[in-house]
Amino acid sequence: MSETPTLTPAAAKRIAWIAERQSKPAILRLSVEGGGCSGFQYKFGLADTPKADDAVSETDGVRLVVDPVSLDLVAGSQVDFVDTLGGSAFRVENPQAAAGCGCGSSFGI
Questions:
Q1: Residue 67 reports pLDDT greater than 70
Q2: Which domains does the chain show, CATH number per domain?
Q3: What's this model's pTM, rounded to 2 decimal places?
Q4: Residue 30: beta bridge partners?
């Protein structure tokens, strides 16, 4: 089984904040789609519940869920939330990504 991605405490805190304001459970779905400037791109969204075949990890009461197809591309990754002068964003530290882009939202294997 592939290593399930995890959330940093900063990402978990931000997801909990967003979920509370949207009256949703604190569950972030990470998926991968074809596209972006490097071949694949990350997609984030709040989920109501995990699906039966999702990989699930939990940090500070916040769950990260990943579908089986995406899991192969993001295994061992860590999702972080960064707040810089350029803006705030979720970033994926993906050990499998051989190439990335400046925006940090797409990658290549």
A1: yes
A2: 6-102 (2.60.300.12)
A3: 0.86
A4: 44, 66
